[in-house]
Prior knowledge:
Keywords: Gluconeogenesis, Glycolysis, Isomerase
EC number: 5.3.1.1
Structural class: alpha/beta
Largest sheet: 8 strands, parallel, barrel
Pathway: Carbohydrate degradation; glycolysis; D-glyceraldehyde 3-phosphate from glycerone phosphate: step 1/1; Carbohydrate biosynthesis; gluconeogenesis
Number of domains: 1
Strand order of the largest sheet: 1-2-3-4-5-6-7-8
Bound molecules: 2-phosphoglycolic acid
Pfam families: TIM
Shape: globular
CATH topology: TIM Barrel
Helix content: 40-55%
CATH architecture: Alpha-Beta Barrel
Family: Belongs to the triosephosphate isomerase family.
Amino acid sequence: MDMNHSATNLTLDALKSVVSQALLGKFTAVFPKLFKCQWKTYEGQKKLYANFSKDSVSNMSGRKFCVGGNWKMNGDQKSIAEICKVLSDAQLDPNTDVVIGCPAIYLMFARNLLPCSIGVAGQNAYKVAKGAFTGEISPAMLKDVGADWVILGHSERRAIFKESDELIAEKAEHALAEGLKVIACIGETLEEREAGKTNEVVARQMCAYAKKIRDWTNVVVAYEPVWAIGTGKTATPDQAQEVHAFLRQWLTENISKEVSNSLRIQYGGSVTAANAKELAKKPDIDGFLVGGASLKPEFVDIVNARK
Ligand code: PGA
């Protein structure tokens, strides 16, 4: 009797779900005319989609928050030991991936001091495994000393060391093939933003990555407007969200809906404990890449921005 009863309930539930899906999901497709005013124009479609993504998808994106610290060329054994102690003692949100981008020479040192729940990243790696490339470090070497991530394409590599989109993409391809996870950086300069070229620039940088990356599972994209890096001039949450939403649309159109939904996009550029919470509320911001503040105890609050 009980079994019959629960079987009936199951059937009823299944029926309810089919009917509600048909009503909710397929309604616009089945009765497009009812939505004519909004669906008639591309603008209308975009508005509907924007509302949909705000209301329904944002808080259940399923993308795990991911915060990277980029120590750049800073620190020595003493100060690195101190930061590692702060991070080891802290209560870090278990729902956030944490990665520390450490100068290569201190990678093993930091790895040994940090809990294994915190990942360690190189800040650069060359595009081949070994050979006559004086001064370079390969993904295989990073892995050998305990790193599991690498930051590639940072604006300082692009601007100071003249790394091209193509070289960065080749580095990403090789690092992924070697089993490292990649934080792939992109971002426009102030000049490019003021010329209204932000979307064009980030799309070009994404295109270069897309030519070399087949599987995006181990990639996190870091959108870092160059004018916000190290300047104390953070993008507003709306400015950042606008570019992140554009990137998701670009991914849908150029890679796939699945990658667009699952790829994590960090924001970077003067993130501090004071602005992280507001930025973290935006639906397409899935974490941060943090420079200056990652050298200070406030990094803990940034990691916990969604807590
Ligand atoms: P910033 O640096 O947080 O000091 O602005 C960010 C970065 O370069 O990744």
